[in-house]
Amino acid sequence: MARVYVGQMNHGFKTGTQSTVTRPRPAAGNGNGYRGRFAPSPTGALHLGSLLVAVASWLRARQHGGTWLVRIEDVDRTREVSGASRQILNTLAAFGMTSDEPVMYQSQRDESYQQALQTLIDAGQAFACHCSRARIAARGRHRGRCQLPARNPTPGTGEAGPESRPAWRLLAPEREIGFVDALQGPFQQHLRRDVGDFVLKRRDGLWAYQLAVVVDDAAQGITEVVRGADLLDSTPRQILLQQVLGLATPAYAHLPLLLDEHGAKLSKQSRALPVDAAAPLPALRQALRLLGIPGSHLPATATTPERLLAAALPAFCLRQIPTARSLCSATWAAVDKG
Ligand SMILES: [Zn+2]
């Protein structure tokens, strides 16, 4: 079987002796082994930036003859907007995209996350942390296992007593973790220096995004993650978790973030306008243009989202997408015209 390694470009990626560079596993093979996903948080309606990621991940999966999955990342229930999950799924359907398998909801995955945490604790990689935010802020980063505070914490230190519920953190290793992104090229981080020991489960009992996404990508058999470049910084943490948990590392392609004309990220929290599910064609056409699909592949005769996606599919290519971490929509439009 011919294997295509996505992301292995000739970047002259050099590694030190303390580095671990992950070679993405085959994203495509001969086609049907490809599994991609779109994983929105239900914090509001889909806007053009998130539509762009959905469309890119969908095209990538279809181009490989693979499987496209939707996962609702509702792990942080404090941020969830009531009804947003249903609205997002309905909007995706209106744009011609539905999950090939049942939609996964992170809010139903506690048991799997707990198992993963237990594995990390048993391996001596995860530890209970009673540090207060103020204490961590004062130290800059959390580095190294924390000692249990005294039973009667000193007033004013902000320490929680050992009887309080701890957060759980992963011990950050003293080495670089790197990977080659299909769009952004080589990227590496020294987790202990740059990030510190990171949270797996919060003191309030909520699971951290990093753990949930790694467990879920593995459970769904994802071979390539296509997502926004705001998550590029998270990827070494996720690769570390994959390594410690003995899970495969997917290939990664981080799309430039779409910024508004003021340079602000389009997000559900900002005032980015939601895309109109009742009239999907204009926004879908715009998203496809931003992804580098030439006008010749966006015919006026394509009068449904399904037809427009089918017409665009043969012209989709990661190399046509700008490789910057972020671009404003006006710049993308200019690149597109050029
Ligand atoms: Zn601590």
Adjacency order of strands in the biggest sheet: 1-7-8
CATH architecture of the largest domain: 3-Layer(aba) Sandwich
Strand content: 15-25%
Q: CATH homologous superfamily name of the largest domain?
A: HUPs
Q: Helix segment count? A: 10
Radius of gyration based on Cα positions: 21 Å
CATH C-level class of the largest domain: Alpha Beta
Give the names of the bound compounds: zinc ion
Number of spatially distinct domains = 2
Instruction: Let me know the average pLDDT.
Output: 84
Oligomer: single chain
Q: What is the CA-CA span between the terminal residues?
A: 38 Å
- Helix-strand topology string: EEHEHEHEHEEEHEHEHEEHHEH
CATH-derived topology of the largest domain: Rossmann fold
Tell me about the largest β-sheet: 3 strands, mixed
Point out poorly predicted stretches.
1-19, 23-30, 150-157, 333-338
Question: Helix amount, in percent?
Answer: 25-40%
**General shape:** elongated
Primary descriptors:
338 residues; alpha/beta; Glutamyl-tRNA Synthetase, domain 3; 3-stranded mixed beta sheet; 13 strands; elongated; disordered N terminus; disordered C terminus; binds zinc ion
Tell me about this structure:
Helices cover 30% and strands 17% of the residues. It is of the alpha/beta class and 338 residues long. The protein has two domains: 19-107 and 216-337, HUPs (Rossmann fold, 3-Layer(aba) Sandwich); 112-201, Glutamyl-tRNA Synthetase, Domain 3 (Glutamyl-tRNA Synthetase, domain 3, Alpha-Beta Complex), CATH 3.90.800. The strands form five sheets. A three-stranded mixed β-sheet has the order 1-7-8. Mean pLDDT is 84; it is low at 1-19, 23-30, 150-157 and 333-338. The protein binds zinc ion. Zinc ion (ZN) binds next to loops.
